[in-house]
Amino acid sequence: MGAIAIFTFLGxxxxxxxxxxxxxxxxxxxxxxxxxxxLITTLSMPNFWSFLFFLMLLxxxxxxxxxxIDFESAFAWDFFQLRKKMKxxxxxxxxxxxxxxxxxxxxxxxxxxxxxLISKHAGGITVIFTLFAEIxxxxxxxxxxxxxxxxHHRTGETIPKPxxxxxxxxxxxxxxIIFCIxxxxxxxxxxxxxxxxxxxxxxxxxxxxxxxxxxxCIKRKTPTAEALVQRQ
Length: 232
What we know:
Layout: H1 2-17, H2 21-24, H3 31-40, H4 46-79, H5 88-103, H6 111-122, H7 125-155, H8 161-188, H9 195-217, H10 225-231
Helix pairs in contact: 1-3, 4-5, 6-9, 7-8, 7-9, 7-10
């Protein structure tokens, strides 16, 4: 719906000026921040709608960050077995502080340029590969049977067999195909970016992928389904 609103407005502007949409804008991450404010100025009481629009962006950002911090803190709390070593609020403080100091350069004068570089290269192939690794770990490494045993113990429900089949034999191969196509396009498609920028972007791509592969090489003893149920 957001895309429909953006390009409907851009089409309206292009029609009024006798141009094509491609001549109006070249796209990019800032497209929504150009189209929506322009659209709001055509409404009555534009200041009121502008306030609501940017309040919406603020709330969406806060909600996203809260979910991210909660996931990362829970992962660190369980993976590194910090329950008896450190209070959870200290874990959250360390994560929030680390994210603050690693992301503070995005607030500089060139912050938008850095953000586009990271988003363009670290938000595509890496997300697809991470999704592939997560599904593989859940379906085959941890096992859907163990997950089903935990879910049945907690809620009394089971995982439908069509869902198991789809996750193992349809979703996983499809994501693998998408990942291979994305890697091919990364090296085959020519862009106007400087060479150093391309290789910096590819380095950003390789970091999470290498982390996942290293994680696969680390052997960790996983408990049986019975042991997991007894812990609940």
